[in-house]
Design a protein that fits this description.
Length: 237
Amino acid sequence: MPGVAPRLLVVEDDDPIRTALRWALEDEGYDVAEAVSGEEALAAVGTATPDLMVVDLMLGSMDGFAVIREVRREHDLPIIVVSARADTHDIVAALEAGADDYVTKPFQVKEITARLRALRRRAGSGAPAASAPAEVVLDRTAPALVLREAAGTVHRGDEQLPLTLTEFRLLCELASAPGRVFSRQVLLERVWEHGFFGDERIVDVHIRRLRTKVERDPAAPRVVVTVRGLGYRLDPQ
């Protein structure tokens, strides 16, 4: 019996681009819903309950940045930004808002579908490696910070922290070898798979967001540590 088609919401106010994306993504087996404005997108998230989103930034009164921030308040579904805005500030701002990936226009549809497949593989690969411990205590200072990879959760005491898929995958990768330094390129290859057009800044942005959730003082991180010129490592406390 065939599986249920993944639900995908395309948020784009350019009719030809939105239609082309819908046709291509339906050919890839997605159940595609559409929204032409930020307000319509937020309503569709509630009614269509998408598994993934593709969001343009330039949407009119409510732009894509605001849409992503609002969605992130309640949902951790993967989000790809598709935009003509290629400035570094815009890319970083979109990732800071909560996007998982960023593709600039003009683009090849096959690039979008490839990145969506990568995000779906990441979402479906929550099972830990056979040698992975049931839980990793990242910070023993009460209330303790505990990663449970098999359950897909991170808790501080009784509180489950609202990590996105990308943040969780980053933390699991670092926790696979505490004390080891992971370069940005290695993290790109293991967490993003396709490498995000070779731009390592995406790692820095997501590390900053991860720290706001797992560190007691994000301005002076002790768990997820920067090794200047080399990358990042996990230092359990």
